[in-house]
Amino acid sequence: MNLKKISELLITLGLCPAYKGYTYLQYAVYLTTTQKYRQGLIVGELYQETAEHFQVSKSTVQHSIRSLLDVYWNQNNTEHFRHITGFPVHNHTTLPPREFIAVVSEYLLQPSDLPYWEL
Own/partner pairs for 2-8, CB < 8 Å, 24+ apart? Predict the structure, then answer.
């Protein structure tokens, strides 16, 4: 998976690249689409590797991604997210960063038009 394809999806979902957390989220999704993280999303390790890549602290990565997603969900993007990914987000519920990253990663890895939870 390349960063350009990930970026295209994140922008289509309505995430703003102007936020610092965008770059961290993009890289975290990239890592989860590699074999190393495919078997299980261990957020602590994922944030640590992202932090090392950007030479910042793990807490900076965590806070920045959470802030980006807080802004995203506060803009009422729940229905748009569901429409694009097909993931059943109910009653305008927001996904925590771990689940958001997992859903976006799985969406990107699907060879068919069906999301993994509908296969």
Answer: 3/27, 3/30, 5/108, 6/30, 6/33, 6/104, 6/108
> Comparing 35-39, 89-93, 96-100, 112-116, which segment has the lowest mean pLDDT?
112-116
8-58 pLDDT, tens digit per residue, is 999 999 999 999 999 999 999 999 988 666 556 678 889 999 999 999 999
Q: Token match 């690249």: residue?
A: 17
Phi-psi domain of 86 (left: phi exceeds 0; alpha: psi -120 through 50; beta: other): left
Q: Which structure tokens are listed for 79? A: 């229905």
CB-neighbour burial class of residue 105 (10 A; exposed 0-12, middle 13-18, buried 19+): buried
Residue 9 CB burial class (10 angstroms; 0-12, 13-18, ≥19): middle
pTM here? Answer: 0.87
By the 8 A CB rule, do 107 and 115 touch? yes
